[in-house]
From TrEMBL:
<feature type="transmembrane region" description="Helical">
    <location>
        <begin position="151"/>
        <end position="171"/>
    </location>
</feature>
<keyword id="KW-0472">Membrane</keyword>
<keyword id="KW-0812">Transmembrane</keyword>
<protein>
    <recommendedName>
        <fullName>UPF0259 membrane protein GCM10011328_13440</fullName>
    </recommendedName>
</protein>
<comment type="similarity">
    <text>Belongs to the UPF0259 family.</text>
</comment>
<dbReference type="Pfam" id="PF06790">
    <property type="entry name" value="UPF0259"/>
</dbReference>
<feature type="transmembrane region" description="Helical">
    <location>
        <begin position="192"/>
        <end position="211"/>
    </location>
</feature>
<keyword id="KW-1133">Transmembrane helix</keyword>
<feature type="transmembrane region" description="Helical">
    <location>
        <begin position="20"/>
        <end position="42"/>
    </location>
</feature>
<feature type="transmembrane region" description="Helical">
    <location>
        <begin position="87"/>
        <end position="107"/>
    </location>
</feature>
<feature type="transmembrane region" description="Helical">
    <location>
        <begin position="217"/>
        <end position="242"/>
    </location>
</feature>
<dbReference type="InterPro" id="IPR009627">
    <property type="entry name" value="UPF0259"/>
</dbReference>
<keyword id="KW-1003">Cell membrane</keyword>
<feature type="transmembrane region" description="Helical">
    <location>
        <begin position="128"/>
        <end position="145"/>
    </location>
</feature>
Length: 250
């Protein structure tokens, strides 16, 4: 019997509905970790004021590219910008690794008839977290490089590596072998993966646009809301990818 996208979507939404409490807590917990870690790593107010001064000085120049804006900064301002970007990237990576590890462990435990929770899933995923950290770091760099060159290469790379975390988690495979197998499976099942990845990217953009209008919330609260909603979207994609890989492996 052929695998259909409609059946995978239906199974994914049913799983999400049945495990909504655990998934919501997992998404909220990893969002808090991401935001708090970012606040701990981000430079202090004195250093951030340097970037604010740069923004005020260049507010009248609307025809500058991002590269030109950075080149017009002083070395101290460029260093502060690097620290801010590094803090955001590292905290997001840690939060995503915990989310992916926790979600994949939760899915496997529930599929095996075991009861679990958000904290128990994260704890049980501890053995695979170092491998997932290396895997997701490489995948993130590849996707970002592709998006920097052009949108299409970034999307293609995202599709190619999309099943690597699932394969690495379920089969206990290494980073590069997981990526290799993921690429083969992804492009041989492109009709099932491309729409899901495009939906994931579009949903993330819509969430970002929606939360940017929540000016009534404090910055940290808005960050937690944004990260939680983004995590829920990623959780649904992980369920879909896990279901797809399970059917392909059967």
């Amino acid at each position: 019997m052929p695998i259909t996208a409609s059946a995978l979507y239906r199974d994914s939404f049913n799983f999400m509905r049945n495990q909504l409490t655990s998934i919501l807590l997992l998404a909220l917990l990893t969002a808090f970790i991401t935001v708090i870690l970012n606040q701990l790593l981000i430079p202090g107010g004195d250093q951030l004021s340097l970037l604010s001064a740069t923004s005020d000085d260049l507010s009248g120049t609307t025809d500058m590219s991002l590269q030109e804006l950075i080149q017009n900064m002083s070395p101290e301002q460029q260093m502060v910008l690097l620290k801010v970007s590094g803090a955001a990237t590292f905290s997001a990576l840690v939060g995503n690794v915990l989310l992916v590890g926790g979600m994949l462990t939760l899915i496997q435990m529930v599929s095996n008839g075991m009861t679990t929770s958000a904290l128990r899933s994260i704890g049980a995923s501890a053995p695979i977290l170092p491998r997932l950290l290396g895997l997701m770091l490489i995948c993130t760099l590849l996707v970002q490089l592709g998006l920097t060159l052009f949108i299409v290469p970034g999307v293609l790379i995202a599709v190619a590596v999309s099943m690597a975390p699932v394969i690495s988690s379920t089969e206990k495979m290494g980073v590069f072998k997981s990526i290799k197998i993921s690429s083969k499976l992804a492009f041989s099942n492109a009709r099932l993966l491309f729409p899901a990845i495009m939906f994931w990217l579009a949903a993330k953009m819509l969430v970002l646009l929606a939360v940017s209008h929540l000016t009534i919330l404090p910055i940290m609260a808005a960050s937690v809301v944004l990260s939680t909603l983004s995590n829920l979207i990623s959780a649904l994609l992980l369920i879909y990818l896990f279901r797809l890989y399970s059917k392909l492996r059967a």
